[in-house]
Write a structure and sequence with these properties.
With 233 residues, the chain is α/β, with parallel strands linked by helices. It has six helices and eleven strands. The chain is globular and about 55 Å long.
Length: 233
């Protein structure tokens, strides 16, 4: 059985990367892998805020800040990641307290994600890549990350412009975390810091190589044709 053809999109000119501190690593990796001049891009804007997420919006309101950043940068494509700091108790929309990992907690967090997705629907952003979390080397995160990933994927399925990018097995061998992986050149190195949350520079590069390849397949990134040299004419 053959895979369905990848839906082709218009090439993007303006990119906006948003999220918690993990995006600090991913955004730089993307900038290093995607040269604006190679793809005719106008802008790659990376904005991240440490110790934030969609849980404690009383501490940092990603809804209002996302609106501001979209209006300021007018992106064609966005890349977002949250969840690194969302592994804590939550207050739902009615200010009711829910302990972490309970059904009420999961429902309240899904409502936060759905609210964010609806916000994105209000703007003429053509495509949003919602980055999933790879398997971790810390047991606590491996309790939360599968739940977060499941929620992100579930919400993305009812918002056509959002695509969940599944990285769960990117740092895994036979379903278990493996600290060493090879990038597209075959170079092997550690992929996560010991905190279990942040990718190393090498790990972030691997993740963004995957995203770049996917964007090219979808037409979001379209390499500019290089002029023929004198010997090629």
């Amino acid at each position: 059985m053959t895979s369905p053809p990848v839906k082709q999109l218009e090439p993007a000119k303006r990119f906006l990367f948003l999220g918690d501190s993990i995006m600090g690593f991913l955004g730089v990796a993307f900038e290093n892998n995607v040269k604006k001049s190679d793809y005719g891009l106008e802008q790659i804007k990376v904005f991240y805020k440490i110790s934030t997420g969609l849980n404690r919006i009383d501490f940092y309101d990603w809804y209002s800040h996302t609106r501001e950043l979209i209006q300021q940068n007018n992106p064609d494509v966005m890349v977002v990641i949250f969840g690194g700091n969302d592994d804590q108790n939550i207050l739902d929309a009615n200010k009711k307290f829910h302990e972490e990992l309970t059904p009420g907690w999961e429902k309240a967090y899904e409502e936060r994600v759905e609210r964010y997705a609806k916000l994105l629907d209000e703007y003429p952003v053509k495509k949003v890549y919602w980055i999933g979390h790879p398997i971790s080397n810390v047991a606590r995160y491996n309790k939360f990350f599968p739940i977060f990933n499941r929620i992100y994927k579930k919400v993305s399925l009812v918002h056509p412009k959002i695509e969940f990018v599944d990285y769960w097995n990117t740092f895994a061998v036979n379903g278990k975390f493996y600290p060493i992986a090879a990038d597209s050149t075959g170079r092997k190195a550690r992929v996560r810091y010991n905190d279990g949350l942040h990718p190393t520079e090498h790990g972030a590069k691997i993740m963004m190589e995957i995203l770049k390849k996917h964007m090219i397949e979808e037409g979001v990134l379209r390499p500019k044709s290089k002029p023929l040299t004198q010997t090629q004419k």
